[in-house]
Amino acid sequence: MPNRFIAAGLCLLGVALAGCAGSNPAAAGPGPLGSAPAVPPSAAALPGQGGGSLAKVQACKLVPAAVVRQVLGPLDGPPVENGGTICLYNKAQGGSPGLVSLVVTGLTTYTFVKQADTQIAQKGTLKLQQARGIGDDAFSTLVPAGPSYTLNAAKGQLAIAIHVNSGSAADQQRVRELMIAAIGRL
Hints:
Elements: H1 2-16, H2 65-72, E1 80-82, E2 86-90, E3 99-106, H3 107-122, E4 127-130, E5 137-143, E6 148-155, E7 158-164, H4 169-183
Antiparallel strand pairs: 1-2, 2-3, 3-7, 4-5, 5-6, 6-7
């Protein structure tokens, strides 16, 4: 049970720290697994999104509706966007993985969460793995006791975290497919 609280806390931590995106990523310093590279904001920003700025992010528009339906299957309604940087997808009743959250943050938050998750992984509470081939840098965390799975990826000065309350290989693959679609639009 405490592991569920840890996983939920880490997810909420990323949301709460989203306001730190404007700070200097170099101040965070390198993490135990290395930090995400500091690169200039993407020139190919979404419509209405200032390159690398969270101010105009529309999280629910990062993944086209057709892709969401293809990857997750039927939803219980339209996605719910909260503050522009959070998008919640709720699977139709009985569908796995249930609730899927997509949170857009800044690179500083990504670096902080990666460092914190690395320290927690060293204690054995969660499993952390580098995720290759997604964005500039990516890693995943799995809390087996939860179960809880989060895939985090950074591109330019922005980052995305996608979280599910499931640890199944099928749901991890679904999250990866959503992440590839979303990170490609940052």
